[in-house]
Amino acid sequence: MFSKLFAESGLSLDRLKALLAVGATGSIVKATGGNPVKQSQYSRQIKELEDFFRIKLVERHGKGIRLTSNGKELARISRFFLLGLSNFQRGCLMEEQSFCVGASATFIHRFLLPVISSAEVVQGDTRYRVEVVGDDEIERRLHDLTLDFGVTTRSTISRPLQLKELGKWQLKLWVPSTLHKTERNAAVAFKERRLPLAIAAKELDASGVDIFGDHDCRLVCDNFLQALDALKEQQAAAVLPEYLNLPVGPKSFLRVRMTAIDSRVFYFRLAWNPRLLRLNPHAARRKDFLSQALSEQMTARSG
């Protein structure tokens, strides 16, 4: 079955590893840590892979290099194969399992960290790494198997990736009482586009919210946590998810009801690549654990 694959030299795990490293960093220099000997080795190994498959695997891109479409496909196949070997080795050596989870900064802070920092998890035999990752990167990295699980606000995702709903949430408009004393006056100021706002641009964009483009956005933040910090200064209003509770008395802020904001419902969903579950039985159990624990966390801490 594999006789043709091994009929000539040029294919090896070391060569595939070099391709993965260069593809991940976009540079032979970065992939080798500036080591001139390894640079020469990586260049030679990638050239040998190209000669073996008789295709171009890398191409120049600015000051660096990037994988061609064929290079990306070979990298995907190689990563899948090497991940399987790595998991097999861990099982043989009885080593602990480690999983990487990507999500928004606010989700990590509010829901993910309480789950994976619990005594049960910390004292167990599974380790987690968390990364702040946007929806586009989550999808790409799940396909590449460089991310084990992701939490996204998307309702659909490209095959073969799969989704499981964790819980729903809504947005609320909060206005400091230093700006307006009544909800009615604050609502009028919002409608007339003269209410200063602190906007969590990246996380709102990821949720498909684009209704604040012509408002008085005094502060544009990356995430809801930053917008919450800005709100505490009481100089700007903020649109925040309902699961972020204000740490001060209710008289300091007004909850302003706006149909354009209150009527929208959003969802968090756990995403994964089923190929990972086939490679690593432990991943299937971690998927089930995260799905249940995060759903319970959202139910307990939302509102």
Notes on the structure:
- The protein is an alpha/beta fold.
- It has three domains: 13-81, Orthogonal Bundle (Arc Repressor Mutant, subunit A), CATH 1.10.10.10; 96-166 and 269-301, D-Maltodextrin-Binding Protein, domain 2 (3-Layer(aba) Sandwich), CATH 3.40.190.10; 171-264, 3-Layer(aba) Sandwich (D-Maltodextrin-Binding Protein, domain 2), CATH 3.40.190.
- Helices cover 47% and strands 21% of the residues.
- It has 13 helices and twelve strands.
- The protein has a five-stranded mixed sheet, with helices on both faces. Strands 9-8-10-7-11 form a five-stranded mixed sheet, sandwiched between helices.
- The protein is elongated and about 80 Å long.
- The relative contact order is 0.13.
Give the helices and strands, then pairings.
Elements (H helix, E strand, L loop, with lengths): L12 H13 L2 H4 L4 H18 L4 E4 L2 E4 L1 H25 L3 E7 L1 H12 L2 H4 L3 E7 L2 H10 L4 E4 L9 E8 L1 E6 L6 H9 L5 E4 H6 L10 E5 L2 H9 L4 E5 L11 E4 L2 H4 L3 E7 L1 H6 L1 H21 L2
Parallel strand pairs: 3-4, 3-5, 8-9, 8-10
Antiparallel strand pairs: 1-2, 5-12, 6-12, 7-10, 7-11
Helix pairs in contact: 1-3, 1-4, 5-13
Write out the CATH superfamily name of the largest domain. Periplasmic binding protein-like II
> Tally the helices: what do you get?
13
Helix content: 40-55%
Kindly report the spatial arrangement of strands forming the biggest sheet: 4-3-5-12-6
Could you give the order of the helices and strands?
A: HHHEEHEHHEHEEEHEHEHEEHEHH
Structural class, from helix and strand content?
alpha/beta
Q: How many domains, in number, for the residues?
A: 3
Provide the CATH architecture of the largest domain: 3-Layer(aba) Sandwich
CATH topology of the largest domain: D-Maltodextrin-Binding Protein, domain 2
